[in-house]
Amino acid sequence: MMRVSFTVNGKDHEVAAPPMKRLLDVLRDDLALTGVKEGCGEGECGACTVVMDGLLVLSCLVPICQVEGKHVTTIEGLAASGHLHTVQKAFLENGGAQCGICTPGMILSAAYYLDHPDEARDIREALAGNQCRCTGYTRIFESIKAASS
Amino acid sequence: MTFQTIGKSLRRKEGFLKVTGHSVYADDLRLENCLYGKTIRSTVPHAKIKEIRFKDGIPWDEFTIVLPSDIPGLNAVTLIDAEQPFLAEREIRHVAEPVALIAHRDKHLVEKARHFVHVDVEELPAVLTMEEALERNNVFKSYLVQNGDPSEKWNEADVIVEETYRTGAQEHLYIEPQAMIANTIPGESVTVWGSMQCPYYVQKALAPLFDLSHENVRVVQTETGGGFGGKEEYPNMIAGHAALLSWKAGRPVKMIYDRREDMWATTKRHPSKIRVKAAFKRDGTLVALDIDILLDGGAYPTLSAVVLSRATLHAWGPYKCGHTRVRSRVVMTNSVPYGAFRGFGAPQAIFAIEMHMNRAALELGIDPVEIRRKNFLHQGDQMPTGQVIREKIDLEMMMDRALELSGYHRKRADFEQFNAQSRPHRKGIGLSVFFHGSGFTGSGELRLASELSMALTGQGGVEVFAANVEYGQGTNTVLTQIAAEACRIDPDLVMIHQPDTSAVPNSGPTVASRTTMVVGKLVERAALELRKRLKEPTDFEASARQYLAEHGELRITVQYEPSSDLHWDDEKYRGEAYAGYAWSCDVAEVEVDAVEYMARVTNFVSVVECGRVINPLLAAGQIEGGIAQGIGFALYENVVLEQGAMKNNQFTNYIIPTTADTPDIHVNFVEFPHSNPGPYQAKGIGEMPIDGPAPAIGSAVAHALGGRFINELPLLPERIMDVVESL
Amino acid sequence: MSFQVVTPYSLDEALGALASGEKLVPLAGATDLMVYMEAGTLAPCRFLNLQELDELKPTLSVNGSLTLGAMTTYRDVRVSPIREQFPMLAWAAREVGALAIQSRGTWAGNVANASPAADGVPALMAYDAEIDLWSKKERRRVPLAKFYRGYKEMDRRPDELIAALHLPLPQPGWVDYYRKVGTRRFQAISKTLLAGRILLDADRAVRDIRMVFASIAPYTLRAVQTEAIVRGRELTPEVIEEAAQAIQDEIHPIDDIRSTETYRRRVTSNLVRDFLSL
To answer: What are phi and psi of C192, to 5 degrees?
Structure first.
């Protein structure tokens, strides 16, 4: 077991955990932040996407020993002071969420893309790491277009 | 007729929780003293079980272990029949078959312990192909639909086209794996919470397992992260396993499959082999059709009989043909059992008939559009079951609209010119026209006899009590809109009760594109009945509150009533197979790369008629999702089988289309709301979108390849390669 | 035994730990190792967490050559101006999973993981990358093209750490080519892949060439024989065809769950044709 200090959604946390415990499990089990989802456990589906030190990461592939001193944002931290983030609002209004299981990761990736439009050639590349089995992506693209305008 | 709520793109009712990450899925539930359960499974396809050994290295005394001898009641999953054991007792019939259960409070230890259980077996010969199963006459179910006699017509035909089509298994790949939590009072009652489509199916399966009355088995659906049929019958199994462990441990037990186990052990779409023989006149008129359908059912019957039924009843496509014969069989192999998957047999059958029409057009030298115009069904025509199309349909108009929206004719010519020169890729365009029956087949709805309740709420609104679940497709929102419209209240005043068998009546399973049409109709009827009880108030809210103040409560229950003009003969397979049909025309454009032989869909148009569209935003979203899944079925999704079980059982190795592989999808609704059986003349839409993409894409690829058809799905580059190289 | 982690805070400490004789698995971005752990294919071991080592920090410095610090990620390259000089690095970086993998996955990790299907290694090899291998005993530099010896076998001793990668600055006139043939557009593992570079004379004769392939041999393969066939010759259709045939003798593709040997062979020849028909 090791002790790791880091912030999640602006709050300081210290957890005691095996060093290779996945950030995903720490968030869900230790901090009860269940908005982060596990879809595959091998870094393919994107459901466990969170933001760490400003970058998108897959929390199933981040061992907690590498989170010391880092700043993590999850879907629960996106709606600041009770107001939905523009992207959340756009997903709600434009049918961007269906079953909802990919939605937290998808929204974090979408928000990242809107903040860093130069890091992908288009929406399709920006979201290629977030798999959705319900929407066919059309409404997700519509949501992001709405959020960006 | 003008509506307040119907036809409006209301926001998804539970959408706020979903976009904020606050929805509660099964794995998000935390129970005190919970154990984690795992399944011990066979690794051989057919064998006698000799002994199950728990090897040293694990503190087995800390574990809860369930063997068949621990089962208090019937060791079989009660579904249509009760043949599939919860735990194989003597004989293993497929790889990944459950043989024992273990549970421990340490999630990681239980995962490790799984590898310390050894199943000693005596292997038996396994049947792993449909052909071999057929030779041995291992047939679960067969049907025959005949109208006229095609065998007399082959001589009169100008052209006979005969081909065999194959489709592979398809994995649902819902993003939330199978998940169930059970808590029991041993000897008394069982409660399960989990990811599922059909709470009452789970109750029906668990009551005999524990020898309990139905009331003592409570089943609660938690937010469900996709299902697509994969959470129709499989949850019975995992719920039974979690409950058995809990029954023995006297503590709650959580079972969450990891992705590999989920893909390896759970159901998939039935692989198919379909032979189509069709006779045409020179002008394209279809005169005879003979279709032979073969499905692989896997090791246990599950829902194969009804999947085969739907395949059979969709086999002829939207065409008129006086002489049709469809024979169908589903066989038993030693593969992991195949089960429900969106489309339920129809996608396989529609792939065959629609590819065949396109190929026939080529052989007749006429355009695929014209061969369809010659043969389309119209109002008043008969299907081979004798069912007369009473609703208004206009397939010509729908097809014309799809052709126009896609620029079909222009592109067809342009692409042929384009392909005539040597290019880094070739282009093609193709279409499909198809229908999908809404609700259960034949007398199925009559047997289900669904019930639904509605009650007044203190806010002056209503609460709907139904067993139909939200799993992304929009149940909550659509039922809300129907209730709001019928009551004439604000949709915010409609509440949908969580599906919980202790609180909601059995309104049937959430399958078969039946929720909007069949269950929605019950909502409408219940709402109208409430209005009647309130004496048709002008102000529903005020009247409701007043009624509650005076009487305490008002809750009414309605039951499915069949239309008097629907008749179905299960013996002869004749009559009204479905109460309503939705219709559609798809046009797909593809590019086939000359270096890597990969086909890619570049544009997709779908014109859809599903009666009145209750919520256009949600309906379009559901259709787009079905199309993307259909694109996967057509091009990417290849279940590699080893000993009848999925070998590429990883997200990395089972390829579904990502954002970058999904084209712009254009959905266009045509509404003929006329005498349809659903609420406000709405019909089902959940499954139909997956029926059309494969043949449209398959035909587009054939167009790109200068008329060379590939009859087997998925159209992997490895399959396209040989054709390109021979050009 | 479970998985353990040692986190050194200085290079001496790290190299000392590696020299102790205990088997340590260096842990960089963790994007491969976490997958193996979760799949149960990695036996319990002790990891050497490289995250806190200043000497290995992400760097992209140009000083006669490009030096990539061992912790440099795909994203670091994608957003760096260095992509102008080394376009293929940026193209390759795009092909690794998707954005969230690129934030964490490292170039050095890609080299050390030694997957025959690596996306980054072929680009590095085509740029004649060299590897800095440091141990307590010595510091040596080996060419990446000679680093692999078999499936997951490489010229790295257990006491050595990949400290950096060096890429000579490309001379003007080289043309880069990178094409990954995957199972889908992104988030895919390659079935075959060609990272190529070519320098033509004024008369279109090939002055120099690199051709590096993935997924058609037990390790990333530089096709030196096929390169030799075209070097010094004009790229006529006959020469291109000769090269497309010659590559068949250098590759050893297999059938697996992702594709077939036949497909890999044909498409690899197609890639050679596509590359040389520039």
So the answer is: -160, 160
